[in-house]
Amino acid sequence: MAIAWRRDPDDALSEAKLRGRHVLFDFSAAPT
Amino acid sequence: MTENFLPVRIHVREQPEAWKRLGERYGVQWTPTILVVDPLGVERHRIEGFLPAEEFLAQLALGLGKSAFARQQFGEAERWFREVVERFPDTEAAPEALYWAGVALYKKTNDPSALAHTAEAFTRQYRDSIWAKKASVWLKPEAVRDARA
To answer: How far is B131 from chain A (nearest CA, A)?
Structure first.
């Protein structure tokens, strides 16, 4: 399951509001 | 399932400012924490801790159902809850979704038989789940009357 995670939360929240979408936040400490 | 979302990863070490700001806003206390956030920025579902893919995807659909339910979109909510049961029947999310599918249908139709049918379904599947216990009260006619109040 490959998810194309974004890194800008504010941009995503703005886009979600504009387009009526949901945001999926992953608060992570996993090695990158 | 993930195509229904704008997915954003906030890493504790790589994005300390965003982590602090949004972690405080949403009360994040552990990693991984996954949040389903509606278009207005309101948290509708939370997953704390790692889950295998099947359980994870089922939780995302459950979250979309909860979001629709909270926004009183009961038809949409029922569709998401039914999808959890049909696509991910062996997950921990499935009995919870079966319960809420019945509630969503009841809220949509105001027909208490939706609750009774859900309780009957729990006599055939997920019998050991806490959701079966919660639904069991709907097998009693007086309980269905109370639900209408």
So the answer is: 26
| A29's tokens | 């400490």
Asked if B47 has any chain A CB less than 8 Å from its own CB, the reply is no
Q: How far is it, in rounded angstroms, from Cα B6 to Cα B124? A: 37
Closest CA to B17 of A13, A9, A29, A24: A9
Nearest CA in chain A to B18: A9
ipTM of predicted assembly, 2 dp: 0.94
pTM for the full predicted model: 0.92
Which residues face B33 on adjacent strands?
Answer: A27, B48
Q: How far apart are CA B149 and CA B136, in angstroms?
A: 18
pLDDT digits (tens, 9 = 90+) for B38-81: 999 999 999 999 999 999 999 999 999 999 999 999 999 999 99
